[in-house]
Model the fold of this input.
Amino acid sequence: MRARTWAPVAAALAVVCSAVLIVFSKFVIFGLVLGLAVIACVSFLYVKLLALLPREEPPAGAAPGEAARLAETLDALAAGRTAQLPALSEDIAGPLRRLADRMEGLEAEVADLTPRDDLTSLAKEDVFNNVLWREFSRAGRYDAPLSVALIDVRGLDELRSGEGQARADQVLKDVSSLVLQMIRETDLAARYGRAQIAVAMPGTGAEGAREFANRVARAVDSDEGGLELPEAVTLAVGTASVPDEEIKTVPGLVERASAALGAREGS
Done:
């Protein structure tokens, strides 16, 4: 019988024996002392026996315990790495799967409630800033990539002067619609200032951000069947990504993307 199994039985027997000694002893104090001594002896033997018993170790090469896999799962969920979830028993995986589905549903509901710009249907700038701060903190905590793209729609003032406000608004709306079609569900596109579009891309590194910028450029290239812009209007795209040793703050990340606008135009 295992020590932890018979320990309560031994303790109960010690108490019973002590009570008998106290009741049948002519000297109550002597019986009490003797009973306490019996309890002390049993406790001492129990501790010694536990020390002699070998500890149970998992067999060599065994899979991680359920608790370890659960911790790994929670870390993966927190970091948004759902593709890297470990295998779990159904009694744990089932509730986690339902929780993940519910979280996706809540994210969709929140997305529907996100304050939108009336003209472009993009998120508003303050919403973008809040999301970027949150994602920047998460990226630093989990050492995960995060990229920002700034899309500058240039020439709208000239277009407005020549063809009117409605025409300029329509061009900005068309470009915004194009960007919304190109981003992932986990990305966020927002109107940034008067004629810029900012895109936050959690989980996207520098290479992925550059590829996104190239896709935007191809999408407005009329020679490749893209969105045809008025002659006066051009797009410039700048990107920045973390991890980067030189980028320590959210403003630093946005400033790097803004600086890349001019660098890309001149390249």
Summary: Residues 73 and 96 are 9 Å apart (CA to CA). The two ends are 79 Å apart (CA to CA). Confidence is low (pLDDT under 50) at residues 58-63. The first strand starts at residue 146 and ends at 154.
